[in-house]
Amino acid sequence: MRTSTISFALLLSFISTVCSSPTPIIVLPREDREVLERAELVARADDSYRTLSTASNPDWMGARSDSVSLAQLSIPGSHESMAITGGDLTECQEDFGNSADTLTAQLNAGIRAFDIRLRIVDDNKFAVHHGAVYQNANFDDVINKIDAFLSAHNKEAILMRVKQECTGEIGSCTDVSGQASFVDIFDMYMANSAAAKRVFWTPSVNRNSAADVPTLGAVRGKIILMVINGPNGGRTNAYGLSQFSGWNDGNSQYVQDNYNVPNVNAIATKRDQFRRFLDSYNAGSSDDESKLYINFGSGSSVLAWPYQVAGGASSVQGVNPFFLIYLGQGTDVHQAVHRTGVTMLDFPGGVLINKILSFNNGL
Description:
- It is a single chain.
- The protein is an alpha/beta fold.
- It has a single domain (about 45-360), classed as Phosphatidylinositol (PI) phosphodiesterase (TIM Barrel).
- The protein is about 30% helix and about 15% strand.
- It has eleven helices and eleven strands.
- Strands 1, 2, 3, 4, 5, 6, 7, 8 and 11 form a nine-stranded mixed sheet that branches. Strands 9-10 form a two-stranded antiparallel ribbon.
- The two termini are about 30 Å apart.
């Protein structure tokens, strides 16, 4: 077992080499490089949170083979992708502008999985909400901004989870009455929006027939709908991918979404739930690489707000810095991680996004 602590001798040798050569070429043994990388990730753990703009990965899928299944990729995602207003209990992402400009910033950083929450409003349209709070964007904004991005970066592909947000309960919203059903309105967008026709992968937006997980080559330039969830979490019709037939509220076979974090001390439990699920689909022979795994790092309650769960609070480490450090550790600490799956995060930072994407380099 190799220690993860950098020895004084190693650091002294490194400094001496840098100082003694005007144009140093430093080639360290692989194990020493790993030790240095781990130390850097620990030192940069704070950059795992609220530093989205430090990442720039608008074309990262372009280097991947057409034959790679989406299930093999390590994909950074955002939970409540458009939740940028309403206060600490409502906001889940950094604010880069209304009308889905925030989505564009996430796309440019490298995020490729989105969690879109919609309320039915007048004229059979959808507005983006988090609970009762309107997020200064509509579904047309979401579609149009993704369409513009994919037009400029046509080798990329986007995963999307759509959820009917309004339950009518206290703290939630209420859909406007007198409108068509949620799925009928969704179908209207698919039929009448030129941008939606261009970008949504048709096999995934059929209410009567679910699709298998595609290869990257089959869906470049497209949005793949993973699921439509009803207001209480159950799957709506057959929209999306067939493997998610059991995607309900919270956890299911391919989804970890323990979103109730009752207080800041329970952040440690959320970290463990996130880590255990990650380990489960990296566990060698039990790993099914034909399936997508969706791992939510998010959680909240009135005593643990989204930014605290993501970044940490009261000396309790948040999910984001924990995840970054975990990804940098080797098999001397825990079992190997060879793919992250789709990780849905609040306030992801640039160094964490870049680290997740690094797991695709061997594909």
